[in-house]
Design brief:
The chain is mainly alpha-helical.
Length: 79
């Protein structure tokens, strides 16, 4: 173990330690964010794979209202 003689060197060492921990925290943050992104991408891929194997069937009949079936109040009054 070395003996630290001046206050300047002590301050520098403390600063270096702080910057190192800051850089490490940044790295862990970036890693966690990329892991979250990877997980979300994997989930989307899984959903896409499931849709490809089990497609949602398109509706064969879409009910539509014909114009003749809708009678307004004014038309009722005329009849």
């Amino acid at each position: 173990m070395r003996v630290i003689k001046s206050l300047k060197t002590i301050k520098k060492l403390k600063q270096n330690k702080q910057t190192k921990t800051f850089e490490q925290n940044n790295k862990t943050l970036k890693n966690s964010q990329t892991n979250k992104n990877k997980q979300s991408i994997m989930k989307l891929n899984k959903k896409a794979r499931l849709k490809k194997h089990f497609p949602i069937p398109a509706p064969t009949y879409i009910p539509t209202l014909e114009k003749s079936s809708i009678i307004s109040d004014e038309e009722l009054d005329f009849q």
